[in-house]
Structures are given as structure tokens and as C-alpha cells.
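re: that chain from earlier
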Amino acid sequence: MTLPPAPPEDPVAPASFLHFLGRGLLSPMLMVQAARVKRDIPRLPEPPGDRLGVVGEGEVGLRILVVGDSSAAGVGAASQDEALGKQLAIELSKSGRGAVGWQVVARSGIGAQATLALMASVKLLPADVLVTVLGVNDVMERTNPGEWLRGLDAIHNHARWRAGVHHTVHCAPPRVDMMPVFPQPLRWVLGGAAARLDTALKARLRGARRRTRFALPFDPRVEKPADWLAADGFHPNALLYRRWAEALATHIDVDLAHMPEANAVRPSGFSGFDTLR
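^ sequence. v structure.
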């Protein structure tokens, strides 16, 4: 049997074809499992608290904008103080750049295209670095990798245009294949879909300027996913948000240190954050 040629926007189409063939054969079982998970999984709320602010001492030396889905919104944490956005700002404020301004624009259940619409509907404060947290809902919605990439491109360009962002970090889709809330073979199918999005993301960012991919290191041989997940077995808990923020801050520090312009990030023109203290 000859596989169809890969379209230009989807570098992993042959693997996708085999995967969806397998999913088609299993579809009745998958539909039952998906319905059961949707019925039984606890619905955790987005945590309360401010979604913008300034942390650290001195003048604001760096500004970050975190956009995306429920994990960007901090679902699984008790408050925004424990969520990714503020924790990331806290970690970055330790790097000697002064205080860090941060803003989160996120909503549970949205994918890349809906995130772009959400960004367009709110006031964006000036930002130096954009962080996207997306993928899991696009997996659930069966978004084509090419379409997902176009959504990320549009988000990146929108943030550059409206917030002045000059560097973007795209967080890799979560490891759905390791989430115990999903039974097999549904977990295998969703994990494969997430892996295809991630493979496409790696290909898109290869050689890109001022755009990088971040994946949180995790070793299933010595770590249990359940230890890092909230009560729903799906979202991060407070410990994982802190770990994520620490590793992501290190990644951003390395990115900024290797930017072409030595003074690409500097404490000037920070209107919008000076009134938040």
C-alpha cells in the first residue's frame, strides 16, 4: 500500500495517516472511552487572583506575556500566585534584570485560533517575551498540525504588533500519553496526536529567529506523572507549575543571552506596569 504524499504544511503526514487509520478501526471504543472520561473527569475552575502585576525589586527590566489554555490560566493551582504566569515572573526576577512585569491572557478549553481571538479582545500590556501554552485542546479538536502552526504564527505576529514582543517561547504540547486519566487505547491515540503537533512545531522553529520551543524535562522511569498532576489527573498541580516556571525561566535566560542585540531587553518604555505596584 502506498501512502499519500505529505502536504507542505504537515511534515509528518505519513505517520498521521497510519495513526488515523488505526484510530478509525478503534473509533467505536474510542468514542465510548472519550465520553466516559468527559463525564467522569472533575471540572476544576480557573484559580482566582490577579492576572498581571510586577514582582521583584527595582525598575522593571523585563516584561512577559503568557497566553493559552487552562494550564496558562493556572487550572490545578489554588490561586494565580501558584500558577505559571506569576511563578515564571518570580523566577525571572532572580536573574539580575530588575523587576519583572507579567500578564496572563488565557481561558480554559481554547486552542490556538481561539487564543488569537482572545488576545485581540483584551488590552495587551507591552511585553518583551511571549510564552504560548497550547496544544491539548487542539489535540482534542483534531486540529491539523499545519493549521495549528498557522495559529501559533498568527499569535506570535499579533503579540509583536500589539505588545512589542521580540522573542517567543512555544511550550510543547503536554505528554497526554502519560496522563492516567485517559484509558488505553484512547491515551495512545491522543498521545500520538500531541506528538505530531510537537514534531511539526520542531520543524517550524528549526532555524527560526527569536522563536524557540520549550519542553519540560520528565523521566517516567523515575517519576510518576500522578505526583505532578492536580485532582483531575490532567492539569498540573502547584508543584508542577513551580517546576515548570523554574525550567522555563532558565530557558528564557539562555534565549535572551544569545539574542543578536546585546541590549535587546532594557528597562525603557514600560508604560502600563508602573502603576501596578
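The chain has one domain: 13-43+51-257.
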